[in-house]
UniProtKB/TrEMBL annotation:
Glycosyltransferase in keyword set: no
Cell location: Cell membrane
Organism, scientific name: Microbacterium istanbulense
Protein name: MFS transporter
Chain segments annotated as transmembrane: 7-26, 46-66, 73-93, 99-120, 132-154, 160-179, 191-211, 223-240, 261-285, 291-309, 321-342, 354-378, 390-411, 423-442
Family matches, as InterPro entries: MFS, MFS_dom, MFS_trans_sf
CDD domains with a match to the protein in the record: MFS_MMR_MDR_like (cd17321)
């Protein structure tokens, strides 16, 4: 890479790293926060959920704004907003203000991930783009390891408030790097549809709130029903406006592109399975097996290590050979890893019953994520990559919320050994569906780069001609 390319990749990684690390920092700090500020369990839930609601509500709007105004400007806005929110959280005197500042932090976070990925796609091409996305995936996966460690150490030896002050250093470094490089970033001529943005934010906000609160409050709760119906109605109105409006936030023509719609459908299956596996495994190891929270967290550590070691290489390979094979083989490997968890028995042994499945699952996840992100982002013109990244992130987040919302149905009411086995089977089914969608839908041939309605026949091409596309994680890694 040239100097500017290295700096731009560092900016993209650093901006996303902050959002990913923050997601895991707070989980270990929650007990100390509620000891000092109060709020109890409901307060803890909303300290997490306030971030998720604003992030999920604004991510599509943020993607469109980054395309119209430029990724560099939107990144700076997101970073400065995240720094202000982090400082306010560190100084929060009450649980209520803490929750409000977490909502502000989620709004700022919505501007970081789509813009950083769009910056990569506007700078790198072909195999170099896929490799850069692999580096981005590995680095943001590392945040899931560093977050709990940083949060735990600072909470134990200084104060939980320092866990949020810690965001300021990487933000300052990224802002300095932005000053040192000329970003390959040409804003579109156009405007942001304010009414469309409001319909999108309110619609997604209502749906996300309903999906978060439904399992806790009950689906017949008046608040949940109101959020579900109002959110669904407003989001439907948003889609209608995208069809007939003059400046759509999400041009519906994007979904006519084979790799775009099939990549997002595969994302829905894969990230639902990823969330189901991670959630159930962590709860089962603590509640049924009796492991500590730290030990349960470390149980999935091999998965993250495999992603860190392999994502860059897989990204480069998918850039050469196309994403289709990787997006098919990866989910199948993950499904096999999930089925290996069926060996878990009442006579529990982590090394023999859990570790093999975690390793196979992690290898499959590594094979899947970078090619998936590349397939989605590479299917649209680079001036729409911010919107494409936002759509893919929104799909991943909503699918995760949906699967958690129906968790009780999947496990039969409780995560005992029987429920754990049922969840493993459902995870494998979801991943198999993702593999089938990828094999049938994804194509490695070049798709037309214009978002017009003109039909263009894709001609055969060599591996070096294949455009690279990307997939997020969001991993829970994903994911934020």
């Amino acid at each position: 890479m040239a100097r500017d390319e290295r700096l731009i990749l560092s900016i993209a990684v650093g901006a996303s790293f902050v959002a990913f690390m923050n997601n895991t920092v707070i989980t270990v700090a929650l007990p100390r926060i509620t000891e000092e500020l109060g709020g109890g369990l409901p307060g803890q839930q909303w300290m997490i959920n306030a971030y998720l609601v604003t992030l999920g509500s604004l991510i599509l709007v943020a993607g469109s704004v980054s395309d119209v105004l430029g990724r560099g400007l939107v990144l700076r806005i997101g970073l400065i907003g995240f720094a202000i929110a982090s400082t306010a959280i560190a100084l929060a005197p009450t649980a209520e203000l803490m929750i409000a500042f977490r909502a502000l932090q989620g709004a700022a976070g919505a501007f970081l991930v789509p813009s950083s990925l769009a910056l990569i796609t506007s700078t790198f091409r072909d195999a170099a783009q896929a490799r850069a996305i692999g580096v981005w995936t590995a680095a943001t996966s590392m945040a899931s390891i560093i977050g709990p460690v940083v949060g735990g150490l600072l909470s134990d030896f200084l104060s939980w408030r320092w866990a949020f002050v810690a965001n300021l250093l990487p933000i300052a470094i990224v802002l300095l790097l932005i000053l040192k490089v000329r970003l390959h970033d040409e804003p579109q001529r156009g405007r942001v549809d304010i009414l469309g943005a409001a319909l999108c934010a309110l619609g997604l906000g209502g749906l996300v709130t309903a999906l978060i609160e439904g399992p806790n409050q009950g689906w017949d709760n008046p608040l949940v029903l109101t959020c579900l119906l109002a959110g669904g109605t407003l989001f439907l109105a948003f889609i209608v406006r995208q069809r007939y409006g003059s400046a759509p936030i999400v041009p519906l023509e994007m979904f006519k592109r084979r790799n775009f719609w099939s990549g997002n459908l595969a994302t829905a299956f894969v990230y639902a399975a990823l969330s189901l596996n991670g959630f159930v495994l962590a709860i089962f190891l603590q509640q049924s097996v009796g492991l500590s929270a730290t030990a349960a967290g470390l149980a999935s550590l091999p998965m993250t290590i495999i992603m860190i070691l392999g994502s860059s290489s897989i990204g480069a390979l998918s850039g050469r050979f196309g994403a289709r094979v990787f997006m098919t083989v990866g989910p199948i490997m993950m499904a096999l890893g999930s089925l290996l968890l069926l060996t878990v028995s009442a006579d529990f042994n982590y090394w023999q019953q859990v570790l093999p499945g975690v390793i196979v699952f992690g290898a499959g996840l590594t094979v899947t994520v970078s090619p998936l992100t590349s397939a989605v982002l590479g299917s649209v013109p680079s001036n729409r990559s911010g919107t494409a990244s936002a759509v893919n992130n929104a799909v991943a987040r909503v699918s995760s919320l949906v699967i958690v919302a129906v968790l009780a149905v999947i496990v039969g009411g409780q995560i005992d050994l029987s429920g754990f086995h049922r969840a493993a089977i459902v995870t494998a089914i979801l991943l198999t569906a993702g593999a089938l969608v990828s094999w049938i839908g994804i194509r490695s041939a070049v798709e037309p780069r214009s978002l017009s309605n003109t039909t263009v026949r894709a001609e055969p091409c060599t591996a070096s001609d294949i455009p690279v596309t990307v997939g997020v994680t969001r991993a829970v890694p994903r994911r934020v």
